[in-house]
What we know:
Number of helices: 4
Order of helices and strands: HHHH
Helix content: 40-55%
Number of strands: 0
Radius of gyration: 21 Å
Strand content: under 5%
Oligomer: single chain
Structural class: mainly alpha
Largest sheet: none
Amino acid sequence: MKKVDRQIKRSAVHEDVEMRPHYDFSNGRRGEFFEQYWEGTNTVRLDADVHAVFGDSRAVNEALRTLIRVAGKPPRARSHRSKTR
């Protein structure tokens, strides 16, 4: 089965599904949190061996900051992500 065929079949399964009555988006505002999401999302996936050493984001950030100081690298200016992603 080709990848395209799977995508078509998967989307066809959901065509007949209606929104459940207990979901109420009548007061929702499109894009309300878009800017916050765009500015604050920077997920990095750690390999298992690295995760075993650094159990949380604080430990990873501390180690990376130490490496930056030792390497003598100046901090880069923070830029927005490309909109092509």
